Amino acid sequence: MTGGLDGPTLALGALIFVARVGDVSLGTLRTLAIVQGRTWVSFFLGLVEVSMWLVVIAAVLDKIAARPILGLFYALGFATGNIAGIMLERKIAFGDVALRVICPECADTLPALIRAEGFGVTVFPGQGLHGPVTMIYIVCRRRDLARILRIVERTAPDAFYTTEMMGGVLKLNRPVASAGGGWRAVLKRK
Questions:
Q1: Which of 68, 76, 139, 158 is deepest in the core (most CB within 10 A)?
Q2: Domain presence at residue 182
């Protein structure tokens, strides 16, 4: 006996690992979709996730006593799936965020540049530790956040900013066509 490391066991282990990475990644996306109230997305992700999990657990349970190494593949797939799910979610960037930018010397320039990109901006005067400041409030899609932050960092490198996930947004001012266009842009082209 080779200690359970024969070719068929390794092949099954690799399949279990990949399937587990897939179902845990979907679980991460499903959880975020639930938090954001995306009912149908949550439904379909949950359906696929649990179907994959049932297939994987059925493959492991009846064979794990004879080949305990399969349990390791299962556990490694789960742990890797958490990381993969987080990375995938960052790429997809579901949801909306509130961005608050506080800067001492950007009352006109920064809001104008962000508005020129098609985003809605609200400006508030304020008083900071060292004198007058301007707070710029922007609600945008998470996928647009990096684009706006590049403008902030280029225009006001001394600015302080915070972000906060938004639950429900009634009306969101956003550019007509974002950089790259996304997958929906393909459907709109004629």
A1: 139
A2: no
Q: What is the pLDDT of residues 176-186, one digit of tens each?
A: 554 555 555 44
Both tokens of residue 108? Answer: 């006109």
Which of 92, 113, 141 is the endpoint of a domain? 92
Q: State the Cα–Cα distance between residues 27 and 34, nearest whole angstrom.
A: 10
How far out from the chain centre does Cα 180 lie? 18
Residues 109, 69 share a domain: no
Give the SS3 label for residue 161. Answer: strand
Q: Which of 135, 7, 148 is nearest to 67 (CA)?
A: 7
pLDDT, tens digit (0-9, with 9 covering 90-100), for 8-29: 889 988 999 999 999 999 999 9
Give the residue numbers spanning the domain of 153.
Answer: 96-175
DSSP state of 167: S
d(CA 37, CA 40): 9
Contacts of 175 (CB under 8 A, 6+ apart): 117, 118, 119, 144
